[in-house]
Write a structure and sequence with these properties.
By secondary structure, the protein is mostly helical. The chain contains ten helices and no strands. The model has no long low-confidence stretch (mean pLDDT 88).
Length: 223
């Protein structure tokens, strides 16, 4: 990897590492608030896995000669803002979790393709954990919709609010193009966009939604 190519990869790994830290904090909070012992065990296990992911990406940055804190710094405000959001209700929380887990997993699949062999091997272990996380998020959403099928009409609005919040969060901390342009400079830009768009669309279709449903929910909208 050349010096020119290393800089954007450091930024990408910094963003992923900080995202895993936020996921750890979120899972830890849910473990504390869990209503049953079983639920608490599930979230504690998830928190432990997310912490392992965070520490692993930090170690990969160090092994590549980067300063992890410096690599994560540009993404702190955006990710802090995104994860600080409070969904309106349990259904919106489930939709955000279902789609958010999917976006994160798609990003990791792309990262596996463009990273060095050692980092790609580590990403494989992360994805193995994430399978269970995405399955749980999917099961939670399906359970809510099966309990009250009429709530399916609210899903498109929840999905649109997630996209809008994600975009606004990306603007936090200054011009987002400077920070998130690193993902494009790493390479395989078409593969990245295809992975994210195709993955998001597939998950929407699994809920019986398409682009028109999101557009119809776009206006009016309050965040």
């Amino acid at each position: 990897m050349t010096v020119v190519a290393r800089a954007p990869m450091f930024q990408v790994l910094g963003a992923v590492a900080y995202g895993e830290k936020k996921a750890y904090e979120e899972a830890s909070a849910k473990a504390t608030l869990a209503g049953t012992d079983q639920e608490r065990r599930v979230w504690r296990k998830t928190a432990a896995e997310e912490l392992r992911h965070h520490k692993g990406f930090v170690r990969r940055l160090e092994a590549l000669g980067a300063d992890p804190e410096r690599a994560m710094r540009p993404y702190r405000r955006a990710l802090d803002r995104y994860h600080a959001a409070t969904p309106r209700n349990d259904l919106e929380e489930a939709v955000w979790s279902y789609l958010g887990e999917g976006v994160a997993d798609d990003l990791l699949r792309w990262l596996k393709r463009v990273a060095d062999p050692e980092t790609s091997a580590f990403v494989d272990t992360v994805l193995a954990d994430e399978v269970g996380h995405e399955e749980r998020a999917t099961a939670d959403l399906k359970r809510l919709l099966s309990e009250d099928p009429a709530r399916r009409a609210q899903v498109a609005g929840a999905a649109w609010r997630m996209l809008a919040h994600m975009g606004l969060s990306g603007l936090a901390g200054g011009p987002s193009l400077v920070r998130f342009g690193a993902f494009l400079r790493v390479g395989s830009t078409r593969a990245l966009l295809d992975q994210l768009v195709r993955g998001f669309s597939t998950r929407l279709r699994a809920l019986g939604l398409g682009p028109r449903d999101l557009l119809s929910s776009a206006l009016p909208i309050t965040l």
